[in-house]
Amino acid sequence: MSQAASVTLDRARYDLESFEAAVPGVELLDDPVTLKRRSRDYYWFSPIAKAALDGMVADLVALPRSVEDVVAIAGAAARLRIPITVRGSGTGTYGQAVPLHGGIILDMSAMDAVLHIGADGFRAQSGARIGAVEEAARAQGLELRMHPSTKSLATIGGYFCGGSGGIGSVTWGGLREEGNLHGATVVTLEEQPQLIALAGVETNLINRTFGSTGIVVDVAAPLEPARPWQDVVVSFERFDAALRFAHDVAADEEIGKRLVSFHVAQSAHYLRPLLPGLEAGHCAVLLMIDRHDLPKLDTGTGTVILSEASADREADPQKLPIFEMSWGHTTLHAIKQDRSISYLQTLFPPGRIIETATAMHYALGDELPLHMEFIRYEGQLAANGAQLWPYTSPQRLAEIIALHEGHGVPVANPHVFTVEEGSRHKRVPGDQLAFKARVDPHGLLNPGKMASYQPVKP
Fold first, then answer.
1. Tens of pLDDT along 265-311?
2. d(Cα 79, Cα 14) in Å, to the nearest integer?
3. In angstroms, rounded to a whole number, what is the distance separating the alpha carbons of residues 344 and 349?
4. Percent of the chain at pLDDT above 90?
5. Terminus-to-terminus CA distance in the chain, angstroms?
């Protein structure tokens, strides 16, 4: 333990000495640099969240290496009423890893074993890097159904608990779609912690809850036969031609695909340093296609400016994988060039994708450059928008959200950090609230992130 912490922390806020005594053998960190770094994620994508969350820091970091460690930590924290915020790699953008009330950061990164790989799927400890899981799967000719754009850094547990979809969702839908999550093991935050095994659709109880509905120690999901993916980028001079091409590729069930990412010219502008063949003022469609299906692509008026094996691009550190130009990485590349950039998350609904995307494009233009990934939503084709937004004010954000919702485009507000406010439905499902009461009766798990929850025990 660092002695420097004694001059920077108010250790009287919680009984940390008793906690430390209760978890012998568990690695604990309290130096100020570590506390600050591991109390953060990418919440600064949002100027609003940045203003609200800057300066919030944990009192202690605990690094369990086994389920037994997690049980000891959870039991001691419950007895001493010390809050716990569970952390993976901190690649989320919603303030999930920021402790609103101090306490303990439970860093799961040391629990990184891949426990099983087979045709029936995989099981891995929560701290396993997603890239490592897929590498192990590919060694057996298999691959994940989906992964985030942060595949090389993110943990599988963090993705299960904080993610919604990603690369692969154009074929398989989001994480909550039936069959995409097989199971998880949850440790409760009680004086005598219990282990709960979730299976099938029960895993939705832990998805998108910011780590507030249980400490997840391992997860299981399906695998598919690995395919020879090809990165392809097609540029278009006209917005309507680019959007129609992206839509038609996404809808074509004869084309094997892992990614269809559409960028209007103002969004594609931020990718030009990464795609030197992309002309100024052109829209871009980024694809990951089964190379056997490349002859089925009809680019129409588009120009193919890149076509390389995805595996080659991932293996060469000088070449950025195409998936690291999509989803949240698009916003990251834009912010690197313009610190005023933020973003908005939307859902362009099934049956009305082109209609609603076109309406928002012409209504907001350069103020909110259109960027979206095509996905399956309840079995139907939809598009997940992550429009870029040069931040102006919370008032203008509210106007933009109202405009989208008035056109039937639901918004998941990324500028808040509670489950309720960040949901397109603006509420927590009843089954998740009931499960939280079961696993976190004192309200100590990431307190403040599920605002509607009332602890069932003092």
1. 999 999 999 999 999 999 999 999 999 999 999 999 999 999 999 98
2. 12
3. 16
4. 85
5. 31
Residue 64 contacts by C-beta under 8 Å, 6 or more apart in sequence? 26, 70, 73, 106, 108, 110, 111
Q: Are strands 104-107 and 60-63 parallel, antiparallel or unpaired?
A: parallel
Q: Are 221 and 142 in contact (CB under 8 A)?
A: no
Both tokens of 57, joined, read 């820091």
AA letter at 144: L
H or E, element range at 118 = strand 114-118
Amino acid at 276: P
Average pLDDT, the chain: 93
Read off the tokens for 72.
């000891």
Closest CA to 110 of 87, 137, 93, 78: 87
State the Cα–Cα distance between residues 167 and 178, nearest whole angstrom. Answer: 17
The model's pLDDT over 412-440, given as tens digits with 9 standing for 90+, comes to 999 988 887 777 666 677 789 999 999 99
- Is the pLDDT at 321 greater than 90, yes or no? yes
The stretch 445-449 carries a mean pLDDT of 91
Q: What is the DSSP string of 229-280?
A: EEEEEEEESSHHHHHHHHHHHHH-TTS-EEEEEEE-HHHHGGGTTT-TTPPT
Contact 287, 232 (CB under 8 A): yes
Query: What stretch of H or E contains 195?
Result: strand 195-199
Residue 196 phi, psi (nearest 5) = -120, 125
**3-state SS assignment for residue 29:** strand
> Apex CA 331: angle with CA 411 and CA 179, to 5°?
60
